Amino acid sequence: MAFALGGPVIYQGTLGETTAARVVATHKEDGPRDFGTQYDLVDASTGEDLGRMATGPHEAVPVGATVEVATDPFGFARPAATERLDLAPVWSTLAALGLATTLVTLVTTARHESAA
Questions:
Q1: What is the pLDDT of residues 30-61, one digit of tens each?
Q2: Which of 14, 61, 86, 102 has its CA 20 to 30 A from that of 3?
Q3: pTM
């Protein structure tokens, strides 16, 4: 779960390049879960399409506003607001704990089954 939720923040915190982006459209998802506002971005200096932001800023921003985002130089991950990257160590820790718990459970189960 931590990889799914924190993956973009962890990835962009490690490999992302800081870029000024302009918001060209906003989308509000209606449904049982509130995922907040989604933002479509272009590079503020070149106009290149950056796609939809994976993790938005803390406060809502209007169309036309400029926000600072981390972009993936390899094009694998969607942009993430740089103000959210301070959570990367938290998500990394949660992901590592989840992975460690899974490995310990697998090893313990395998030992138990081989002893029986």
A1: 655 556 788 999 999 999 999 988 777 878 88
A2: 61
A3: 0.62
